[in-house]
Each structure stands twice: as C-alpha cells, then as structure tokens.
Specification:
The chain is 0% helix and 37% strand. The protein contains no helices and 4 strands.
Length: 67
C-alpha cells in the first residue's frame, strides 16, 4: 500500500498506524515491524491480511482489523 494513503502518524521519529480492534469505540496503535508484518490495505473478502510493514498486533497486544 502507498504509505501516503495509510492512516498513520509520526511521533518522535516513530511511525505508528491508527487501527481498530473490532469494537469501533477506540483507536489503537500498531508500530512498524522489521519482519513478518501485515498490510494496512483492506483485503475485501479475504480474511488473511497481506504481508506488509506493520506489526500484526497493536502496542497493547490486540489483533487489529482493517475494513
């Protein structure tokens, strides 16, 4: 995915993605990973996320979703 289309912020030179964990009531953060990450691009009907640059869990350890 084009990084300019991601819902991300930069804090103290650290790139963070704003994500939903399925409830919709709050926003969580996922960091950039060095290996084995997932994409922020919605996968439509495919339940498995594509490979990408983001951690597969949020900073608090929850699995996140992308609609």
């Amino acid at each position: 995915m084009d990084p300019s289309r991601e819902n991300s912020i930069s804090v103290l030179d650290r790139e963070l993605l704003l994500v939903d964990v399925g409830v919709g009531a709050e926003t969580h953060l996922a960091g950039v990973t060095h290996e084995g990450g997932r994409s922020a691009d919605p996968q439509g009907n495919n339940p498995a996320p594509a490979d990408g640059r983001w951690e597969r869990t949020t900073m608090c350890g929850r699995t996140w979703v992308m609609d």
